[in-house]
Structure formats: structure tokens, C-alpha cells
Design a protein that fits this description.
Number of helices: 3
Structural class: mainly alpha
Largest sheet: none
Amino acid sequence: MVKKMLQYEFMQNALVAILIITPLFGIVGTVIVNNKMAFFSDALGHSTLTGIAIGALLRI
């Protein structure tokens, strides 16, 4: 099933993006917690969800 999914170019792009972004988010999350800036990551998460919702409503 995985082979079948990876024949689509957008799935290959998504896999590459996940492999690049995941370690970066791990490092950034550690820095945020060490610098006691957890409120910043919370605000960033809420603004991201808002942006996704607006994009979905406008079909962008």
C-alpha cells in the first residue's frame, strides 16, 4: 500500500517535507521550553490553526 501511495508526486513531496520539518520542530520546541517561551509556541499554534481555517474557507 505504501508503494502505491508513493507513486503520486504530492505524496513524495509530503514525505520529504515531513522528514525535513520534524527534526526542526523538535529542536525549536526544545529551545522554546529551555528559554521559558512556551506562551510563544501556544500563540504560534493558535495563529497557525486560524490561518488553516481561513485558507480552507477561502479554498486556497
